[in-house]
Amino acid sequence: MSTWFITGASRGIGRELVEHLLRRGHRVAATVRDPRRLDDLAERYGERLWRHALDVTDTAGVEQVLGKAFADLGRVDVVVSNAGSGVFGAAEDLSDQQVEESIATNLTASIQVARRAVPLLREQGGGVLVQMSSMGGQITFPGFAIYHATKWGVEGYFEALAAEIAPFGISTVLVEPGMVRTGFFDAAQRVPVSEPYRGGPADTPPPPVASMPGSRSGVANAIIEAALSDAPPLRLLLNSDAYELVTTAVRERLAAFEARKESAHAADHEA
């Protein structure tokens, strides 16, 4: 039996992870803004579900709740930073508040959860840090620029962090799902495009959730298997759409770099 700490556990992939783990006999420390949203699971699984209210943008609260979970449970094997939000709209049309809130929730909070979790994992001799990213940390779509900014930031931060904390026996997994049938897209804010962008690339609504290929259950199962494996991968690219889109984008990016090889080397010399 392993013990997991999961943020954003009330819906989507977070909730699916909690349910899968409890059914398999593991212990889960689940954090949500309103713990009552997990009452049904508490009734079913009793003491194997530890709950606490948490707003991940409250850094002091993150430190307090993480510390309490490790103290109450004795050990936490896997920390999953899952909380996140989205906003659709042309980059210019977003309000300053929407930009700041997106960065605070998707990027800054992820960094702060990791910074508070690492010393606790190191003190107990190791563990696994799972960070929810997205195929949107490798590719982009018009109308979703601020989301991509946060996920590309997450990718860079955790790739560097992974090398720093590997000597402590801490593995890092960046989970990169494609479009998954969750409530994420329904909950995302939508900003109507202003006149200059109407009919352009940013003026395209997201596809219906029912048409998305990714399964919440499939994603949750893949995360659990990877985190509990003998060698957790740094990146876990999930769903068929993510695989096709990301691998195509990486090949195209590499080809573009290769096409400019001469100018790259020429910049080594004095003009």
TrEMBL record:
Protein name, UniProt field: SDR family oxidoreductase
Range of residues in the leader sequence: none
UniProt-annotated stretches for the region Disordered: 195-214
Family to which this protein belongs: Belongs to the short-chain dehydrogenases/reductases (SDR) family.
Domain of life according to the entry: Bacteria
Gene3D superfamilies: NAD(P)-binding Rossmann-like Domain
Keywords attached to this entry: Oxidoreductase
Keyword check for Cell wall biogenesis/degradation: no
Organism annotation: Lentzea sokolovensis
